[in-house]
Amino acid sequence: MSCEDFNYSSILVQDIMTRVLITVNLVTTVLQVAKMMEQGGIGAILVQNNDNPVGIVTDRDFAIRVAANNLSFDSSVEKIMSSPLVTINHNEPISAAAERMTSKKIRKLAVTENGKVIGIITSTDLITQLVK
Fold it and tell me: Which CATH superfamily is domain 8-130 in?
């Protein structure tokens, strides 16, 4: 089966998203987040304010906002997070997720159901699905 033969609109975001979410609050330090990402083997952590998702910290945020600007590891995650949080609904096709990532020039989307974040989908998830 070639890529052209496969109907990507039949696969939904909820079918390939990661449901395990790691979250921190705005005052968590950059160092704490880095350690959590390393220990969890993950590339993104959601940032919350009063249980409301307000942003995301990715491995790219570390490269651009911490390393390139020589930011202190004691800085709050609020200073490096990407915000506002870009989301996609859980029942949208993965092609919509790919389009949103491309148009926003990002590699991770928070997945929502009824306005609540329930997971995350990454460009790696999309590529993994493509090669199946």
Answer: CBS-domain (3.10.580.10)
